[in-house]
Amino acid sequence: MNGLSESAGPEPFRAGVVDPAGNGKGRRPGPIAWAWLLIPLGAVLILHLAVLGRYGIGWDELYYVACADHLDWGYVDHPPLVAAIVAAARSVLGDSLPALRFPGLVAGLTSALVAGLIARELGAGRFGQLLACLCVTLAPGCAAIRHTLSMNPFDHLFWTLALLLTARILGRGEPRLWPLFGLVVGIGILNKYSIGFFCAALGLGLLLTPARRHLADRRFWLGAAIAVVIVLPHVAWQMRHDWASLEFMRNVSTRKNLPLSLLEFWRASVVMMNPLTVPIWAAGLGFLLLSRRGRPYRALGFVYPVLLVVFQANHGKPYYLVPTYFSLFAAGACFAESLAGGRPWARAALVSIVVVPFLIACPLFLPVLHEEALVRYQARLGLLPRAEERGHAPTQLPVIFASMLGFEDRVRAVARVYRALPEGERAATAIFGAGYGNAAAVDYFGPRYGLPKAIGGHNSYWLWGPRGYTGEVVITIGAAQRDLEGVFEEVRLVEVVNSPYAQDRDVAVHLCRRMKLPMSVLWPRVRVYI
């Protein structure tokens, strides 16, 4: 690696041998810039590892751990793969927070590496591969997502692998890769449904471009068949559970996610990807949709505008759009490399618009500062957290951090109530979490306090049932007293857990006795799919 002054080579894309006809047949890219990709990724990995266990385990993270204790082919609000990954990670690495988050961190950084490989497929040299990789690695939305346990970093990895295969199929004329594409997509759908939207948008792009010839290739349909076969066990699970995920998605769209205009939705996604990189990915969109050199890959250019409209119209969250930027960064990096040529100052300027905003905003999406310091830092920047879902009040910290705080405090409060009960009552005492995070906190922290597993009505906790409890004695977390009084003959508020920086700052713990209706009658009424 000779520094950023590497010769740029002949115009317009230097690394590969490009078919002059612009149809991509027989094209071979240049070498992979391994050092240029792995060195910055290694530095970012060290940064993540340094703060991987700070604050605490989050609301959704607790739930995924609980799902790993109930391995199945599906869950109300997500497909099965993330639970299987968590179960495997726990068996190998243990239950610590860094261990739980590590697989997602690796997946997220690998997706950034693959973004560099996509740029190579499109014709980028070493600097173009580096720039595409940096744009993904240092995007605030990507950094925040890969730092926490969720489906999303794995979703990014499956998207980038599918994009890489698509670029090879279209650019090199290699339809033999469609079955491998189907394998990636099938496994990706078992992780998160959103990659299915990518496939639909890509299919539209194929139909509208000369690449429609692939739709007549039996290998394309073999790939589709492979994806369907992989997903069939999850479809069977949905059928057995009355298509629970469809009900969940309808409720999320209409009752949970904030409705945003198209401009608001787009602007929020741009902020997640670093606003200063707009010229890079916009150039990439132009390359894919308008340029002669981008003609073989034109079908990929339709993915971003189509999914921008689809996700916004269905009241999705702006982060749903994040992986659609990856191919745009790759294409834009090719153009930027061409524009910068061998001029060190131009290349340094391109790198700075990616690196400098990351360094400034890093405390807002990675836990490098403690709570008090972060509140002060936000104030200096003039940025205040905003509510991200209906019915939620703004928090003092960014929601990603606020949702990590206070859970063990709640479990300790429950343990105090549980231990104060007569010994004969404890075996019959249920712990009910209002919201899967509260129930899952008991399941995660409870063993160190001698607590039984919790029950709940939220999403998959409802499917797991009341565990044989009769409702004679119930300790509840996070439930409203007026709701409990309609269910129990005796309701007593025993403690309010105050966590000033948490998303839910004052969480009530109640001790309830003598359920007014049998559990078999009440349980169907407590179901909440949202």
A few lines on this structure:
This protein has 530 residues and is mainly alpha-helical. It is 56% helix and 6% strand.
Low-pLDDT segments, ≥5 res: 1-22
Count of discrete alpha- or pi-helical segments spanning 4 or more residues: 25
| Cα separation of the termini | 51 Å
Radius of gyration: 25 Å
Overall pLDDT, averaged? 93
Percentage of helical residues? 55-70%
* Structural shape: globular
Strand count, sense and barrel status of the largest sheet are: 4 strands, mixed
The computed structural class is mainly alpha
Strand content: 5-15%
Question: Keywords, please?
Answer:
530 residues, mainly alpha, 4-stranded mixed beta sheet, 4 strands, 56% helix, globular, disordered N terminus
